[in-house]
Design goal:
four-stranded parallel sheet, single chain, 46% helix
Amino acid sequence: MSRSWCPYCWSESSGVSPVPSGNDDWRGQILQAFVPQVAPLTLVADPDGLLVEEKLTEGIRERGFEILDYDEPIAFRFAYESKFRSRPGSRNRTDLVVRFQGPQSELERLPNDLLEVGRRLIFSLADIFPALSYPVVAALDRGDLDTLYEAQTQYKPGRLGENATKEFVLRHVFQIAPELIKQPSDLLRVLLRRHHRARKVPDTLDERFIDILRQHGIFGSWPLERIVPDREAFLLFLQERWPAFLDRVAADSADKAGESWPDYHFQLAGPRDIPFEHDDVRVYVDNLFVDGLLQPVKHSGADDLVSGWTRVGLHHDPVGDKKDRLSRLLSAVSESVPDEEARHDDWMQFAQRWGELTALALELGAKIPQEDARRCDELRGLVDASFTEWLLRRYAGLYNQPAQPPVMLHQVPRAMARYVSKRGNERAALVIVDGLAMDQWVVLREVLQGQRRNLRFREGAVFAWVPTVTSVSRQAAFSGKAPLFFPRSIGTTAKESTSWTHFWSDQGLLPKQVGYLKGLGNGGLALVEELAGNPAVRVLGLVVDTVDKIMHGMELGAAGMHNQVRQWAEQGFLGDLLNLLVMLGYRVYLSSDHGNVEALGIGNKAI
């Protein structure tokens, strides 16, 4: 009896059954292979990470299958033996999918007890997108495959080479037509749309886009290599040129256009004047100020400028400005609440916007207009209900998501390990601010940016582990593992230091190269300096627990939390800590292990 392979099926026979056609999307071609009760085990070679796409994972689970990654042999064996292996005499049967993220040829490396009973499948992007260049397609986020599949079906491009595939993807997936960008407003519109949505574009596509732009010569002075791929660099580029734009508008309105301009000391070289006033640009710039991605500035001509659309980017009336922004942000957030079909990164982006709204509402306090206070309460209920429903459907599939960028907290050390090579000189530090909520981070960031102008943050979001308590979620962060793999210490944090060292030992570092300290926040900077300054140390794990202590003693609700977090931040410990680590050559990963929300207690539970 021979074993035959096809992209979506496997059978022990002399031939292979044909793959049915007529599927509406690329997932259908894969889901048809998952028929329950066909084999005790399904072994899948998944070199392109297709099975971790959220909707596909959900579809596989709806068919009664569970997915277990074969990554680390020991961790896999523990999970397999403790949860999935059928016991003698058991009537319960589990349809288990063992996913191996490697090519078909390496599937034979799986243990013999799996190979003996498992049917084998292989799924590849090359079979789903046969006309397009495989390396280009493989670099895409899996959430973009729907749009690409629709474009392939609609336009039937024929077989395309690498550059032609890049341009096809730019046009149909990211709505970027490089040949139509003829002037600065065209480029700004494209970059504003992309970076406001935090779209992830592969480096190879950015390189092709920049190459085409450079051919025109119009953007010779623009720092394209910085502002095209890097969201934070693009926002800095805009922020630095906003005061120059205000100067130009003020000069034009006062008929002083011929006066000399000050030296703005731009960090990013490039043109001084960019067309903020263009209709296609202005609508995005307005949203960036509302979302807190750009910061309003003071201007000597503010009294004249606030009557126009530029008011959103001006410090004029401290309370009035905040009320105006709150009203705008409420409308924007209300229109962007993700639904149950949303992808995880939709919720991650929304969480940052929700944090901005919550922080602003708490800052206004009693000054918030009554109608806006009512809208905030209604919106909070809607968000809680929508997020709960989404979690029940999709949370279980987040564990298998790729770790770059991190999706769950335990993946942060893996992202750090991509930066720290075992033979290099790179240094990295993970700083966990225990108990810090997203809206409190907004307060903390504001204080840090005021104290340390040299610090710039690349912000994102990750999901904590449920239940979101310190012993579960923070321990996952320092072990680099899901809670399933540390059952004996699930109720304590005593093993964090050991787990942190073990993780980095698996990455090839020696114990003396790994440091860990906790109990920081109201002191301890000298201990950090002594440890971090040791030339042998290359990775640090640090726990700052002051916010968690504030939370557990708080009796004044969310507003009290914000006030005390701000007071603590203004004392300067965290700013000094981050500055110290940066000065010593560490790349700093700053995160929380869980957040907090205001709630009504129910008293002591009767025993």
